[in-house]
Amino acid sequence: MRRSVKLYDDPRSGNGYKVRLLLAQLSQPYQYLPIDILLGESRTPAFLKKNRNGRIPLLELEDGSCLPESNAILCFLSQGTPFWPTERLEQAQVMQWLFFEQYRHEPNIATPRFWLVIKGFEPTPFNLELLAQKQKAGNQALAVMDEHLQHRQFMVAERYTIADIALYAYTHEAHEGGFDLSRYPAVLAWLQRIRAQPGHITIDQWTAG
Amino acid sequence: MRRSVKLYDDPRSGNGYKVRLLLAQLSQPYQYLPIDILLGESRTPAFLKKNRNGRIPLLELEDGSCLPESNAILCFLSQGTPFWPTERLEQAQVMQWLFFEQYRHEPNIATPRFWLVIKGFEPTPFNLELLAQKQKAGNQALAVMDEHLQHRQFMVAERYTIADIALYAYTHEAHEGGFDLSRYPAVLAWLQRIRAQPGHITIDQWTAG
Fold first, then answer.
1. Is B110 an interface residue toward A (CB < 8 Å)?
2. Angstroms from A76 CA to nearest CA on chain B
3. Is the ipTM above a cut-off of 0.95?
4. A131: which of A113, B63, B64, B140 lies 20 to 30 Å off by Cα?
5. Residue ranges of the domains in chain A?
6. In chain B, what residues touch A80 (CB-CB under 8 Å)?
7. Is B103's CB within 8 Å of A103's CB?
8. In this structure, which long-range contacts are made by residues B83-87, counting pairs with CB atoms below 8 Å and at least 24 apart in sequence?
9. Of B144, B143, B165, nearest to B154 (Cα)?
10. Cis geometry, peptide bond prior to residue A125 (ω within 30 degrees of 0)
């Protein structure tokens, strides 16, 4: 049996979905290993040996090397494919949006969704204030995207790249974190373009290798 | 006069220091344009035209193209230099640590420093609890680095890369955010190795092009 890469992932994770979506669109087979983060399965001694940071998704290569960080995995898998630009400044612009996603978007848009629909939310005064701060910052991130997309079809280079994949993952589920996407019409139109890409899968899907 | 790149940066910023340090070690001349973020100079209409996200550092290229996000700038500038590995998995491992830095390290280590020594800290119950959470998470990030460095000289590929530059910037100032680095001896030894690299500059320095 031919060995393939392994993806350790919690099926509810948007960060994991980024990798599943790219692997599907690359038609690359892989072994899917579900990890329940709420049961602590990403903090077991065996998992911490693969990623000391205790996070999914994690890509394990054929030789046993382990690569964590969803956006680093996207960079790794997309090299030499149409999902990664060939021009140096466009490559840097993809990186720009990947860092924007992890710094300004994901902590403020994915974390409220995680609290409200996955982990459960205890409405203490501290938690309510932190949620409000994150929703305010998340709306600022969505406004940055909306303005950027008003005159563009895709985030970078006028074609579908891993910058779109990374930002799609939690943007399209933002309503679950209490965000009203109808305020961002350019974002809504972009979401439709992403869904129309060949080989698109939804967040609850994966392909087994 | 030969045109050079421009760096918009707040001299107190560790994110800006990453870029200044790499430019110095590349011996690349540049024009330095100080921006006072506390005075709102990164949110003026003129600056927002360059970066709608309203953040420094920002690299403006000779043709007027603007690239924000410190770690994306490091990737852009280091292509084809010894600060960026040539092997594909090692490149992805550099990316891994750049995303770790922006997601787990900087928000928990740089932000307390920003509050405590730059912006000023109002000790409300909410702020005190958030500071405590960030210091706990920041110590977890430092512990991940310390374990990683126990058997390594540098973060990736056993040589000095932009992964080291990105993590050095706020790690070496972590005490200003209330962190005790003596708990992390492998990190302390690594800081010394970084300081010993040719062309090293300190956070309060820059070279004018």
1. no
2. 6
3. yes
4. B140
5. 5-78, 88-195
6. none
7. yes
8. B83/B22, B83/B25, B83/B26, B83/B160, B83/B161, B83/B162, B83/B165, B84/B161, B84/B162, B85/B156, B85/B157, B85/B159, B85/B161, B87/B157
9. B165
10. no
CATH topology of domain B5-78: Glutaredoxin (3.40.30)
Distance from CA of A124 to the nearest CA of B (A): 11
**Strand partners of residue B121:** none
Cβ distance A61 to B89 less than 8 Å, yes or no, reads yes
The residues near A63 (Cβ < 8 Å, ≥ 6 apart) are none
- Cβ separation of A67 and B104 shorter than 8 Å? no
A137 and chain B in contact, CB less than 8 A: no
Q: pLDDT 10s digit of each residue in chain B, 209 long?
A: 567 999 999 999 999 999 999 999 999 999 999 999 999 999 999 999 999 999 999 999 999 999 999 999 999 999 999 999 999 999 999 999 999 999 999 999 999 999 999 999 999 999 999 999 999 999 999 999 999 999 999 999 999 999 999 999 999 999 999 999 999 999 999 999 999 999 999 999 876 54
Tokens of B192: 């010394």
